[in-house]
Structure formats: C-alpha cells, structure tokens
Amino acid sequence: MKYEKNIVFAVGTARVSANDPILSMYENFFIGFMVNRETHMITDLTANTVSPKTCDFIHSMFVGYHLLDDLEKMVDEVKTRYYGIAQKAIISALKDARNKYSMNIKMNN
What we know:
This protein is 44% helix and 20% strand. By secondary structure, the chain is of the alpha+beta class.
C-alpha cells in the first residue's frame, strides 16, 4: 500500500509486563500510526502484536480519530473495549506516539 505525501508515520513504544506473550516475540510493544499531517486524523496503523486479529482490533479502535485532540476518547476506547494484558502498553504507546507527533508538528511549523 502506498501512502500519500501528506501522511506521516508516528511510532509509540511501551514496555510490556513479564507475562505478556508479546515479550516472548519482541522486546517492546509498538504502535505505528499513519496520520494525515493536515487534518491530524489517523488513517491507518500497525502494531507488533502476537496475533494479526489483535492488530486488526487495535486498528478498529483508533482509525478515524484525531491524534492530537481525541486522546481521552481513544484511551476510553481501550479501557472499555480491550481487556487483554497489553491494555496499559497500548495506552502508553498511544500517548508516546501522540507526544512524538506533537513535538514534530511544533518543530516543523
């Protein structure tokens, strides 16, 4: 899949707990958000989950949200819809990606 020139990639990382299956495959958890730099809307994402279905589910929770303005809504999505062991890691990676994205937007304006 090709992305338009106005799409940027913002990656957030988080540590996972010792009993999380992600740890057996990867050292850390990450979510990579494809974001429209003009509207700040999340258009796509990827994550290093154990199951592709988990990545699909995370995709369904975040795509269509405004990365800068909808943080609390997205955190609520995770808390009310995702009951897996990686819940805290997902929220942490989301916040990390938002912070990195926000800093880069400020630096480039």
